[in-house]
Write a structure and sequence with these properties.
about 220 residues; alpha/beta; about 35% helix; six-stranded parallel sheet; 10 strands
Length: about 220
């Protein structure tokens, strides 16, 4: 954990995969099979799948004869059947349960049905506000999802603290004008970032006063 933000916020916004739950093994199994079937270099391809919508990942490849929408739907269907080892990031379930229900949201690049299945597999209840791939006109790294979440919660984007793990999501939060905490629980190597970082939520709590949320480290 690096130095936490010292200011208070009107709302907390959370990415899902890699931020409040880990689905990396499931996702990489599915995408590995897809990459092999399409003759891709798996080692080079897998790092590109995280934090963005599946359809955009496929569209960027510009593969001849491949329909990104149809392929993304098939990948989502496969991922929905493979959630046996999806689990919460340490302490995430308890931390989320401590937040006022109208002061936080999930903003994910995953399709809504996949998000619901993964949250259930991780034992994390659905929040009152879940924004998924279907809700934002432009996916991350565009700021649309975070801007929409702030609007739905009735707060200014600059008064939101975003919890993210992936470069695309971090860029989206920055573009929205939000502060950022980077969750490193699933990182295989150090991320070069100027934002505060946390490995998980077990040593965090939140202070709530006058409808404002302040992040507190329990050991310091």
């Amino acid at each position: 954990m690096t130095n936490l933000p010292t200011r208070s916020y009107a709302a907390f916004l959370f990415d899902m995969d890699g931020t409040i739950l880990t689905s990396i093994a499931s996702a990489e199994r599915t995408w590995t099979n897809w990459a092999i079937a399409h003759g891709l270099d798996v080692a080079k391809f897998l790092p590109t799948i995280h934090g963005v919508q599946s359809v955009e990942t496929i569209r960027r490849l510009n593969l001849p004869g491949v329909d990104p929408v149809a392929e993304a739907a098939a990948i989502t269907a496969a991922e929905m059947k493979d959630v046996g080892d999806v689990a919460p990031i340490p302490g995430a379930d308890v931390f989320l349960a401590s937040l006022p229900a109208d002061r936080w949201a999930i903003v994910t690049s995953a399709p809504r049905e996949l998000a619901k299945i993964r949250l259930a597999a991780a034992g994390i209840p659905l929040p009152p506000l879940l924004l998924s791939a279907e809700d934002a006109v432009n996916g991350k790294p565009a700021p649309d999802g975070f801007l929409l979440a702030a609007e739905r919660l009735g707060v200014a984007p600059g008064d939101c603290l975003v919890f993210e793990d992936a470069p695309a999501g971090i860029a989206a939060a920055e573009a929205a004008g939000c502060d950022v905490v980077v969750v490193t629980a699933t990182h295989g190597h150090l991320l070069d970032t100027t934002h505060p970082t946390i490995a998980g939520y077990a040593d965090l709590s939140v202070s709530v006063a006058m409808d404002l949320l302040t992040l507190v480290g329990r050991h310091g």
